[in-house]
């Protein structure tokens, strides 16, 4: 299983599945990150938190812990 946390800066990937429950899953979905969506990793902070991504034309920052819950292809 590969997660969004493992994707390198400058790479694009597709979301396969979201893990987690309740408010955490809802927060990820509210950002527009759902199954089948393309995600481009723009920048990763030196310590890995946060990860800056582009989803559906929007530039977002996501926490490393949340990125571990997003399974990608």
Task: Walk me through this protein's architecture.
This is FeoA domain-containing protein. 18% of the residues lie in helices and 40% in strands. It starts with a strand and ends with a strand. The chain contains two helices and six strands. The protein has one domain (2-72): Roll (SH3 type barrels), CATH 2.30.30. By secondary structure, the chain is an alpha+beta fold. It is globular, with a radius of gyration of 11 Å. A six-stranded antiparallel beta sheet has the order 1-6-2-3-4-5.
The pLDDT mean sits at 92
Domains (count): 1
CATH topology: SH3 type barrels
Helix tally? 2
* CATH fourth-tier homologous superfamily: Ferrous iron transport protein A (FeoA)
Distance linking N and C termini: 9 Å
Radius of gyration: 11 Å
Q: How many strands in all?
A: 6
Outline type:
globular
Task: List the secondary-structure elements in sequence, H or E.
Answer: EEHEEEHE
User: Could you say what the CATH architecture is?
Assistant: Roll
- The helix/strand class is alpha+beta
The residue ranges in which pLDDT falls below 50 over 5 or more consecutive positions are none
Give the quaternary arrangement of the chains. single chain
InterPro entries: Fe-transptr_FeoA-like (IPR007167), FeoA (IPR052713), FeoA_core_dom (IPR038157), Transcriptional_repressor_C (IPR008988)
GO molecular function: transition metal ion binding
Pfam families: FeoA
Domain Ferrous iron transporter FeoA-like: 2-73
Quick structural summary:
By secondary structure, the protein is of the alpha+beta class.
């Amino acid at each position: 299983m590969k997660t969004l946390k493992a994707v390198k800066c400058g790479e694009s990937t597709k979301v396969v599945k979201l893990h987690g429950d309740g408010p955490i899953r809802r927060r990820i979905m509210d950002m527009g990150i759902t199954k089948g969506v393309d995600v481009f990793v723009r920048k990763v902070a030196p310590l890995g938190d946060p990860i800056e991504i582009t989803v559906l034309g929007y530039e977002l920052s996501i926490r490393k812990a949340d990125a571990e819950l997003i399974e990608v292809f």
